[in-house]
Amino acid sequence: MRKVILAVAVATALGSIAYGQAPGQAGPPVVRQPVPGPGIMELYFIDTEGGQSVLIVSPNNGLLGARETLLIDAGNLTNPPGRDADRIVAAMKDAGVDRIDYMVISHYHGDHVGGAAAIADKVPIRRVYDPGPFADELAGNRAAGFNSYLPVRAKMHVTVPKPGMKIPVAGLDVNIVSSAGEPLCATAKEREQDNTPNNYESIGMTIDFGKFRYLDLTDLTWNQEMQLVCPANLLGTFALYRTTRHGTDWSGAEVLVHTVRPRVAVMNNNPTKGGTPGTFQIVKSSPGLEDFWQLHYSDNVSKDVNSPDNFIANFTKDDTGSFIKVTARPDATFTVKNGRNGFTKEYKAGSSGPATSSR
Fold this sequence. Notes:
Blueprint: H1 2-18, E1 41-45, E2 54-61, E3 67-72, H2 83-95, E4 100-104, H3 110-113, H4 116-122, E5 125-129, H5 144-153, E6 158-159, E7 166-167, E8 173-178, E9 204-209, E10 212-216, H6 222-229, E11 240-242, H7 254-260, E12 264-267, H8 277-284, E13 291-294, E14 324-328, E15 334-338, E16 344-347
Parallel strand pairs: 3-4, 4-5, 5-6, 10-11, 11-12, 12-13
Antiparallel strand pairs: 1-2, 1-14, 2-3, 7-8, 8-9, 9-10, 14-15, 15-16
């Protein structure tokens, strides 16, 4: 009998401690209420020196009682090792989050998947989306990033998404529009693809928060981009667009950019990668474009072609890796902030919306 009484006493004490009460404290248990989400969506375009990593923080709390995070790619494997993971963690600290709920590995090039193992060592990751099997490269020495990711992948809950699938980020509507070489329509005239077939596997997505819309096609090819808007616009129009494939001439098809009509574009280039004359011409001539933000100054064009200095986060590879932060609201107003100097610009609500035509 004494053992039973003792067990009950211990269980009661432990239950009180679990609810924030001292043993023997009278009254009902204290139920801690989670702090509600702020109702804004935050996007961090992280400087991975010409790689790719975008951290998105949800406006609402998820099932775990906190804001949820979506990380699109993890940056580079080297140059130096761990640098890009540290920059992702710095952005997470700025946002006040401590885990990654959903990580998308868009494809297996080292500047997208290379940092996955390093970030997995630093923060918890709940779920991963990737294209599945590795597509053999026509150019050599391109599998190092994928190989570094395999031990991490083996321990993760991994989903290989299909076009039309959603990623359930709290308060956002995240739609997959391409994955593993399958765009939503296939009737556009194509041109020759370069020798990096993993880009063809890229996971692309649209992300909606109320009336605010963001388009990120990662490194999808020019031909596949055309298929998403020709003969019909399957995507709609957008407030914010990240230049596909770092602003190189292999992606960023003029018909795509001019059809989705972004109000603001952000380019994840470095001084010599991306930021080509063709990209500047296509983006800056897009109907309705208000501003073109750059993670880096581009040495591939003259200063007068580059955006004004306040719209550029970094100028050389020796810079500290400043991010560009976007704070979006459901009425389609949003703010863009340069992490280098704090320059901030507010954008009023504009017209953007999903596609209304059917396939």
